[in-house]
Write a structure and sequence with these properties.
With about 325 residues, chain A is an alpha/beta fold. Chain A is built from eleven helices and 13 strands. Chain A has a six-stranded mixed β-sheet with strand order 5-6-7-3-8-9, sandwiched between helices. Chain A has a four-stranded antiparallel β-sheet with strand order 11-12-10-13, covered by helices on one side. Chain A has a three-stranded antiparallel β-sheet with strand order 2-1-4, covered by helices on one side. In chain A, α5 (about 130-140) packs antiparallel against α6 (about 155-170) and α9 (about 240-245) packs across α11 (about 320-330). Chain A starts with a strand and ends with a helix. With about 260 residues, chain B is mainly α. In chain B, α7 runs parallel beside α13 (about 230-260). Chain B has one domain (about 1-15, about 25-255). The mean pLDDT of chain B is about 90. Classes of the chains: A alpha/beta (about 325), B mainly alpha (about 260).
Amino acid sequence: MIKARGLSKTFRVHKKEAGLKGSLRALFVRDWKTVHALKGVDLDVGAGEIVGLVGANGAGKTTLVKALAGILHPTGGTAEVLGHVPWRRHNEFRRQIALIMGQKAQLWWDLPAGDGFLLLREIYQVPGDRFAANLKTLTEALQIGDKLNIQIRRLSLGERMKMELIAALLHNPKVLFLDEPTIGLDLAAQRAIREFILDYRRRENPAMILTSHYMEDIEKLCERIVLIRDGELVYDGGREKLLASYALHKVLTAHLRAGEAPAEGPARPQGDSGVPGEILEWNGTQVKLKVPRSEAAAAASHLLQSYPVADLSIEEEDIGTVIEAMMKRDKAA
Amino acid sequence: MIRYLRLYAHFMRFSISKALEFRLDFFFRIFMDLVYYGIQIGFYQAIFMQTPLLGGWSRDQSLVFMGGYLVVDAISMTLFSNNMWMLPVAINRGDLDYYLVRPVSSLFFLSLRDFAANSLINLGFAVGILAWTVLRLPEPPHAVSLLLFLAMLPFGAVLHYQMHLVSLLPVFWMGSGSNLHGIFYSFARCMERPDRIFTGWIRRLLVSVLPFCLMASFPARVFLEGPHWPILLHFAAVITAFFLFIIFIWNRGLRAYSSASS
């Protein structure tokens, strides 16, 4: 559904020195700098896929999303979304996509969301019965049906974002671009929106590209992760593969049998050379260790032999930590 | 076309309910325009204490011209002005992003989405003033001339909007657009003067590339001096030319916007 080949984008921006002096100088003399926001990006996204686009600020995430949504004209390369060249902006293409930007509102500030939805119905020419059914499903899923007649400016940030999501989905888009859809929201609202996105996928099977700074969004929503750094894709693959190839550690958690361990906890393993890695937690009932992947099995067997273990689990490192480490490593490289 | 009319009906409905919500602002704007109308009438009365003719028109004829430009101004205020004020902001802030992903003309949306309900009431006053100026003419008007006059005034408003938009289009390349309104409003005063008071190249400019004298003077001349085909054709040609010019520049502007956007 989405296909990009060698997509590149360069901007010319002028550099300004700080302060009034810099501003005065820039009035007459401009130092131009060429910024390569995208450098030959290849990307394919199929129906039903949610691709998590991850990268630091300024890495090129939003530029890539905007190019694929047709807002931005790339400097080079090709792209096809639903068989259309996005930046030609054919109505047929625009009728089938949706864009949500967490930092920019699309609904009119002074109008109740319900009115904004009627306008969108007209814009996308959604038949009356389908519109009513969609609106019912979407408002019920987000539990916000009772707020349709309240002006957007009187809604909380979370409620506003829910309305923005509904606005974007009323026309059953086949391709969705979600740029920071949970930014600034509290945990409950983030969770509601994540569940909603998964529910929408189950029903409509769209292709989605999601950018977020919240690793939990990426972890809960995306089986596939695309890592972008300085305009280049440095990783494109499954979440599990990312962990398998790049997670350097595993986390072992052992629950100890009550009563059998000393009250102050098992002896701390100073001098216990059998405990590898880093101790994250060590008390009377629980032991948590971070160990190199290759030594996880040995560490587990050591724990089982040396302590009264009731239950043991071995988990992958938090994906956010892995991605952060990868980005740091790439920067250093 | 029908889809756009339906969209416009939504714009009107939303704008009216929004305007009614801010009561004080609603009445204040009506009051401000009434002051403006009073000043215009006073201005023409004062001029005709000094001279019997202005640009070839008597006091009664000049008042009809004035009634005409008040209507042009009121239509423009009702349909376009609020939108034109917001347009550079929308382009600067990147709000255009959402308009570009919608299957609808971004120019249509940004030009017409805000319908000024309070100005609609002022349009009623302006039409009343025009009717008063027509009725006090010494001779009853010809029906055809009157109909043409009334038909041309909305197009005068379209031209007014076109010129405002043209003055704002550089915002696509400049990045900041707050000074552009100033240029437009300086020129827009020429609309409030009969075209014949200008002579030479200034007049040629004001009826061609800066057609401020076409907006109200040409409709008034058709009414007061009879329908001349050259005037009607000239009027239609300029509006059509600016329409095509705007579409062309708008598309270039969108390209520049999408190249600069990040």
